[in-house]
Amino acid sequence: EVKLVESGGGPVQAGGSLRLSCVISGYSYGTSPTSCLAWFRQAPGKGREGVAVIGYGGSIEYADSVKGRFTISRNNANDTVWLQMNSLKPMDSAMYYCAAGSALSLNANWFHYWGQGTQVTVSS
């Protein structure tokens, strides 16, 4: 069973930084259903938004709203993925989810496995 566990969220003031971590277990390295790792977020009353995705070969995509501020990375074993978030804004406040899926996409439909989420709250 694939399992994803996020950590690192919390309250932060605008302009500050947070680093989210996600530990992934229970899958075969590089297999198609989990070849891409991504971060999504969902604010109250809004849909789930793709933030960043990293593919098996290291390709990366970011949502326009976070380009230049957020950085996604992973370790060589492909069992941990991080999201470094700098210059945080109140609009970044949301529940952040780690996901594993089969496409280099920010569309949640391509992601089959999800963590429980970690809350990020940015105050002005």
Summary tags:
single chain, 124 residues, mainly beta, four-stranded antiparallel sheet, 11 strands
Can you count the beta strands? Answer: 11
Count of helix runs: 0
List the secondary-structure elements in sequence, H or E.
EEEEEEEEEEE
Form type: globular
| Rg of Cα set | 13 Å
Strand composition percent = over 45%
Largest sheet: 7 strands, mixed
- How much helix is in the residues? under 10%
Spatial separation of the terminal alpha carbons: 40 Å
SSE class = mainly beta
Residue-averaged pLDDT, rounded? Answer: 92
Low-confidence stretches: none
Structure description:
This protein is an all-beta fold and 124 residues long. The protein contains no helices and 11 strands. The protein has strands at residues 3-7, 10-13, 18-25, 36-42, 49-54, 60-62, 70-74, 80-85, 94-101, 111-114, 118-123. The strands form 2 sheets. Strands 2, 4, 5, 6, 9, 10 and 11 form a 7-stranded mixed sheet that branches. A 4-stranded antiparallel sheet has the order 1-3-8-7, with no helix packed on it. A hairpin with a 6-residue loop joins strand 4 (36-42) and strand 5. The protein is globular, with a radius of gyration of 13 Å.
What is the secondary structure topology, with strand pairs?
Layout lengths: L2 E5 L2 E4 L4 E8 L10 E7 L6 E6 L5 E3 L7 E5 L5 E6 L8 E8 L9 E4 L3 E6 L1
Structure, briefly:
By secondary structure, the chain is mainly β. Helices cover 0% and strands 50% of the residues. Strands 2, 4, 5, 6, 9, 10 and 11 form a seven-stranded mixed β-sheet that branches.
